[in-house]
């Protein structure tokens, strides 16, 4: 699971936000649970499909576009709609990466999990299996040491 602060976690699982901004790149790809920071709960899942540089701190500490792909700059209007951050002073990173998410699923009920001490970005979950419904609107959540409730796909 990836740990995401409020309100960004809910925006990811609803599909309102598709870029999660981070200070380090990741090589992870595939379905990840979204753990809402401070709640001890998983609120949904997304598929992490890409990780791309979207800016860095330049002279004077202003955010500037990545040199190789300036079209990915987080400050461009079309990209603000992807990450939903309006105040770039809230972005504390020197290098800024976008974890690109797709196929969001919001759980009908939050699923409690044991948050390991010191975990900041990633949490490894115990998993006994994944059961899926063949319809496009529902998905059963992965088993995390207890029986889990049904889920509802939101977009």
From TrEMBL:
Species of provenance: Durusdinium trenchii
UniProt superkingdom: Eukaryota
Lineage: Eukaryota, Sar, Alveolata, Dinophyceae, Suessiales
Region named Disordered: 132-155
SUPFAM superfamilies per UniProt: PUA domain-like (SSF88697)
InterPro entries on file: ASCH_domain, PUA-like_sf
Protein name listed in UniProt: ASCH domain-containing protein
Span of domain ASCH: 4-59
Signal peptide limits: none
């Amino acid at each position: 699971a990836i740990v995401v602060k409020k309100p960004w976690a809910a925006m990811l699982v609803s599909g309102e936000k598709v870029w999660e901004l981070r200070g380090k790149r990741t090589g992870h790809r595939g379905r990840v649970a979204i753990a809402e920071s401070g709640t001890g709960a998983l609120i949904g899942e997304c598929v992490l499909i890409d990780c791309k540089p979207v800016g860095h701190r330049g002279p004077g500490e202003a955010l500037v576009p990545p040199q190789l792909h300036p079209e990915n700059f987080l400050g461009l209007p079309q990209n603000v709609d992807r990450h939903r951050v309006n105040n770039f002073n809230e972005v504390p990173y020197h290098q800024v990466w976008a974890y690109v998410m797709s196929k969001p699923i919001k759980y009908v009920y939050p699923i409690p999990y044991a948050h390991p001490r010191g975990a900041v970005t990633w949490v490894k979950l115990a998993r006994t299996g994944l059961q899926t419904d063949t319809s496009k609107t529902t998905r059963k959540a992965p088993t995390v040491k207890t029986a889990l409730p049904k889920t509802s796909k939101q977009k």
